[in-house]
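FORM 7B - TANDEM STRUCTURE REPORT

SECTION 1: FIRST PROTEIN
SEQUENCE AND TOKENS:
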Amino acid sequence: MNKRDGEPVSCGTMRTMRRAVVSSLLVLGTLGSLGVAQAPAPPLEIEAAPDAIAGPFRTTVARVALRVSGEPAHLVRELDELLRSDLVLVPMVEVVPAGARTARVVVRPQGLEVAVALELDGDDASTPLFTSHRGSGLRSVGHAVAADLVAALTGARPTFAGRLAFARREPGGRKQIWVADWDGFGLHRVSSPRHTGMLPGFVGHVLWWTVLDPQEMYLTNEHAAGRSLVGGDGTQMGVAGCGGGLAFSSSRSGDSELWWGERDGSSLRKLTDHPGIDVSPSCAGGRMAFVSNRNGTPRIYLASVSGEAPIPVTEPPGETQTPSLCAGERGLQLAYTRISRGMRVELLDVASGARRMLSPPGWNAKDPSFSPDCRFVAYVARGQGVVVASVDDPSRRRVVVTGPAETVRWGPPPPPPLPIVDAPERVDELGAPRRR
């Protein structure tokens, strides 16, 4: 027996884990599903990517003066800070002191809720705008108002919403899974401190992760109270939704392959079958990206959900890992980590093959994950924490969670709670309906 994170681990588990570590592929991204094992077909045609460049994608800027008022004073301050923080991430908008269109925002409590109204001046090319939102949380209402303002100024509405999940090892403790709102608020731990939790991923609205206990590596989710939902021999690493189910990498059949199952973990089937190690799948827009060392060096491959043969889409230098695919208004985008004299996050436009850097030069940055609308990307930067940046202009960024983190994943917000209803009625054979 050996020990990992203070707990004994069986020799068999250690062997499979060591094999994954040596392959440099333990860090997983969001997952996808081919639906079938690799089937021969004409390869996708993607041109070789040029050297990555830095700089903004768009330069047209709408300038606006922001005026926040209302009562009480602490709500005004909090809302003003929230709006300015959101607008920092939008390169097409610049907040200026005066001399531009003016956005007037008024906040007031209404019972147990807050109401926020937005009025935006018109100009020669636009009409005035008035919108209002009401809700129980100032932050959710404020994010909605920020989206209204950006949409009015630029014609494109960002989605300031969702959850960030990541793994973190506290000093003297095991690695655990932490969750916060996309802007870093409400940070809390969701995994059990009795075991090691790592490699989070979202399947729809539900957060899943990998658990390492003394005898087994298995998959669980936030509704399972830590119990095993997908187990078995070998490694079970990383999970996310695709094709109506979930996918993950597993060494249950020997080497590490990609597997698919229903959302409850049933009906498992193998997606890939290759002597190399296949991990880190991510799918969007009918495509699937994953990492494989089948040609010696870990690289990202792209395949079609319909079964076209995988082809490499990243080139040396170094290794490329942790892919995140997103399908949006500009087509299919791929963010990933490049490991070569440090780590950096890059973006690949799949259709054109153009590459751009998303992390600043000199930062050790890794593990990107797109927002649901593909406009932003979250990643981990050593010495900084979890960073959220604009895809259009990566210099528009914020550190939303400080401290150590790895494998950050951006998922949708949790679904609203189910309404509480009275107990159902039943009809007796000889009487009127009565309560149970």
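SECTION 2: SECOND PROTEIN
SEQUENCE AND TOKENS:
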Amino acid sequence: MSKPPLTVLLAAPRGFCAGVVRAIDIVERALALYGAPVYVRHEIVHNKFVVDDLKAKGAIFIDELDEIPAGDRPVIFSAHGVPKAVPAAASLRRLFQIDATCPLVTKVHMEAQRHHAEGLEIILIGHRHHPEVIGTMGQLPEGAITLIETVDDVAALKVRDAGKLAYVTQTTLSVDDTRDIIVALQQRFPAIRGPLREDICYATTNRQEAVKSIADRIDLLLVVGAPNSSNSKRLVEVGEKNGCARALLVQRASDLNWAELAGLRTIGVTAGASAPEILVNEIVDAFRSTYDVTVENVVLREENVSFKLPRELRDAAP
């Protein structure tokens, strides 16, 4: 029997961003320079495939620094950033530490520190318990930053001085939802100061815009990414809010429930900023077993951003 036709729209940009590429390169470079094991505090990026690959190469992922035995093994901090207390604790133990924090997250940290130095109370727009939010709030003394997640939170917000406020945001939020929160903040607190350039990173914005460009053309959107990946979950939400009948987050082709994937004509596929392209190809190939697949690349824009490795890795002998 002939297979039913299926058009797969591959949204681009998708997949790895510059911060994720840098973080993975940091772990691999450290392994090449210093040998295994290299310790990594928390997942270097939110993707099981990537983490498992680095484990196989000699990286050991830990939750806390006290899991590292005494010695001279490197410890790497994840791309999401860490509270200041973490490198301070590492210094007390004289651990060789390497910071893989995405430079765009570091930008938010520096903004928060600058606002605090100017005597401003800081509002952070983000998702509670996300490691990036924990890291940002941990840049300043407790109570210096207030976290809000929704427009409703703005109405309930209590501040010390409405004339001395600033806001920063998590880098991986929904562009549209965050815009609504910022508008609500500005309406309630006209003097509030924001970043000179928005905090939501270029990759998050580009991937969301790419999904919007195909959402009303498809029966189903598949977002390749991890369930703990903020930017991947936001892509699902963006698809649903922009005309896509169904949007699903999947990690691997093996996650696909084929009983629910019958009768499709056109699907869209994208990937969160920490999901490798090999997983996108795996899923497209899986559909070929059931459908006669035609792939159409829908490229919103090209990305050419790159970030340097930390100096201690650049300057080290090969």
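SECTION 3: OBSERVATIONS ON SECOND PROTEIN
The mean pLDDT is 96.
The domain at 18-102 is CATH 3.40.50.11270 (Rossmann fold).

SECTION 4: SIGNATURE
Preparer initials: ____
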